C-alpha cells in the first residue's frame, strides 16, 4: 500500500529522490526515464505523500519525512536541479562546482574545470544578454528579452532530453568513449541551462539601472 511504502522510505542523504515518485519515474529515474516529465503527475505524487498521517509514525519522524519529500520534490520539479541531481548521483557536483575524487568514477571521469569553459559563442551570447538587461529601459523590452530567454531554456531542455535518451541507450557499455562523450555534453548543457536560469532570475528582479549578477 501507499502508506506502507512511505513508511519504508529512508530519509537519509543516500536515498534516491527519483525512487519516491514511481509514477513520474517508473524506471527509477534518469537516465532510464525521460528527462522531460509530467509536472502534474509529479505534483500529485508529492501531495499524496505529504497527506499521509499514520499513527505508527512519531511526530519527529513525520517532520523528517515531510522535509525529505519537500526537498526531493523541489529538486526534481525543476529541469536544472533535476539534471544537477542526476550528475550528483554520478559524483559530479555542479552545484558546488566540484568532482568527487573519493569514489571510483572511471566510467564517468571528467575534468570539471575544463567543462565549465563553454564555447566562446555561448559566453558572448550570455554577456550580451546581460548587457541588454542592464540597458533595458522599460518592461516592454524586458518582456521581449524574457521570451527569448525562455526559448533558450526550452531548447536546452529538449537537448538534455535527447542526450539522456542517447546516454541511456549505451547503458550496456558504461566505459565506452561515446558514453563518456555524451556525459560531457550533458554537463555542458546543464551548465548552459544554469546560465539561462540565472538570466531569468535577473529579468524577474529587474530594476532600471540595476547591475546583472550571474552566479557561476
From TrEMBL:
Domain of life: Eukaryota
GO-annotated biological processes: [2Fe-2S] cluster assembly; [4Fe-4S] cluster assembly; aerobic respiration; intracellular iron ion homeostasis; protein complex oligomerization
Any Gene Ontology CC annotation: mitochondrial matrix
Domain Co-chaperone HscB C-terminal oligomerisation residue range list: 119-204
Keywords: Chaperone
Entry GO MF terms: ATPase activator activity; protein-folding chaperone binding
InterPro entries in alphabetical order: HscB (IPR004640), HscB_C_sf (IPR036386), HscB_oligo_C (IPR009073), J_dom_sf (IPR036869)
UniProt signal peptide: none
Keyword Chaperone: yes
PANTHER family associated with the record: IRON-SULFUR CLUSTER CO-CHAPERONE PROTEIN HSCB (PTHR14021:SF15)
Family as reported in the entry's similarity comment: Belongs to the HscB family.
Name recorded for this polypeptide: Co-chaperone HscB C-terminal oligomerisation domain-containing protein
Organism: Ascoidea rubescens DSM 1968
Lineage per the UniProt record: Eukaryota, Fungi, Dikarya, Ascomycota, Saccharomycotina
